[in-house]
């Protein structure tokens, strides 16, 4: 499905990929991820999308976002919105679908292959639109988690489905030893 002379871009839905990897019990090594897709074609761009909480002293995602910035990723962020739902629970909303979609559509004329790291069914129309422009689309997510992290119609629309668990040995970080007082 990948050709050496393909102009390739990767689009990572940060929250979605994090949740999928966590459900499979491993962490992503973004340096290895970039190297892997660099090897599969001519990597034009690697995008990473995430919402950030405003006004927090420390955000656990901040070190990753900074590292990605310095290591060749185009990081797209926006402030997450905090609200209280009807049950009185504090919720955070930070959907990056529109930003990812616009970037993918703008880059499409210069791409042969787009790789979407997300299982979000909302991206099905994007895949369809990219395909109409002659871009092949691979989707990376998982069906091995309970429940599966990929929407069935997204998987059907993609030209190629890549099981995230199958990439574990290629792009996964080695598990850390538990820290304890033993």
Automatic annotation (TrEMBL):
Residues 7-165 form the NYN domain. Gene3D superfamilies: 5'-nuclease. GO terms for molecular function: RNA nuclease activity. Pfam families: NYN. InterPro entries: LabA, NYN. This is NYN domain-containing protein. It comes from Paracoccus amoyensis. The lineage of its organism: Bacteria, Pseudomonadati, Pseudomonadota, Alphaproteobacteria, Rhodobacterales.
């Amino acid at each position: 499905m990948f050709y050496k002379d393909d102009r390739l871009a990767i689009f990572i839905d940060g929250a979605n990929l994090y949740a999928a990897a966590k459900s499979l019990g491993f962490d992503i090594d973004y340096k290895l991820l970039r190297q892997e897709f660099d090897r599969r074609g001519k990597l034009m761009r690697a995008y990473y999308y995430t919402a950030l909480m405003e006004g927090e002293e420390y955000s656990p995602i901040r070190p990753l976002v900074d590292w990605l910035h310095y290591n060749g990723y185009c990081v797209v962020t926006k402030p997450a919105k905090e609200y209280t739902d009807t049950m009185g629970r504090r919720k955070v909303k930070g959907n990056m679908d529109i930003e990812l979609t616009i970037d993918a559509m703008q880059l499409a004329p210069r791409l042969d292959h787009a790789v979407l790291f997300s299982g979000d069914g909302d991206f099905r129309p994007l895949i369809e639109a990219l395909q109409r422009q002659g871009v092949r689309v691979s989707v990376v997510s998982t069906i091995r988690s309970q429940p599966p992290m990929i929407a069935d119609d997204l998987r059907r629309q993609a030209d190629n489905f890549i099981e995230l668990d199958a990439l574990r040995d290629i792009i996964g970080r080695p598990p850390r030893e538990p820290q304890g007082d033993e």
